């Protein structure tokens, strides 16, 4: 199968689409990637890419076509221009870059923004092939949840844009079951909406004894590790409130691995609250290093702001945490919390409940090593059943084949 992947983000940026493309290629499918210039999450084009763009034109044998785009920078206006520039860059340059290439199907990876769908459906018309859209974020709901857009007229306009894209896709996949009703509201044909969750990369499946020199050794400490994006959705004000409540417990240590739009604010707050020796901000690391950080954790933290939209989301790190076999501490609502509880993988408190988070941490710290190990093993077993990578990639290939068949039927 010839598969054109359209994604605003791709290697060397760390996103699950990298793992998917590698697996599709390993299964002997002809994969081509259309993406932008790497700049997430720092907001500046990666220096190594600027020094040698040609070094980033292939990924494990897969051809990458990169289009001009403005880096994210900082601020809402710059982010909006980043989204718009990818739409324009991909729409204007992709037809030329992909001349003579005829994919069987176009697959869209959408962690955000939904605008990545515009060049995809445009190319779908030019190439006369189906488009399969994987929604990992809900628009316009997420925009309202994080306060980017609040005016009803503006939200209605975004909803119209979403409807335009979804209705021109052959299939629309939602990353959680709770996503499906919301997606269906924007589709004239609701039969095209399907459930397709994320998985954890294989590297989390293996036991890791690698040392982590970036973290000072502290015998007897209880390490809470948060990995991933440091943004508005992750509710760092509540996390820091919990850390503040527990700062007199010398053994409790927070390790934040990652960065994002709220990183500077978090760093300032850590200083202002006198949490320097309690909260370690170690920055972003390649995905290959993450299993080592997970292995040093006594508990892995996942959080989302309190909002109906976020309650429908399963954060991608949940699957990775489960596969790593470490106990999970969740401060979130809805489907993400349900997964942790069904897996028996840890403890959960409501989103935004900093007091409840602090109480759970104290409870976790008193839990025996054997009990925490049992939680981790239970989570890993659940992930192997519900979020097995091989099974899910096979399911996706079946969905792509179905989309091709449906598209062909419409041609006659």
Radius of gyration in whole Å, from Cα?
Answer: 21 Å
Please identify the top-level CATH class of the largest domain: Alpha Beta
Task: State the share of residues found in helices, binned by percent.
Answer: 40-55%
Number of helices in the DSSP assignment: 16
Derived from helix and strand composition plus strand pairing, the structural class reads: alpha/beta
How does this model look, in words?
With 412 residues, this protein is of the alpha/beta class. The chain folds into two domains: 2-199 and 388-410, Rossmann fold; 202-386, Glycogen Phosphorylase B (Rossmann fold, 3-Layer(aba) Sandwich). The protein is 43% helix and 16% strand. The strands form two sheets. An eight-stranded mixed β-sheet has the order 3-4-2-1-5-6-7-8, with helices on both faces. Strands 11-10-9-12-13-14 form a six-stranded parallel β-sheet, sandwiched between helices.
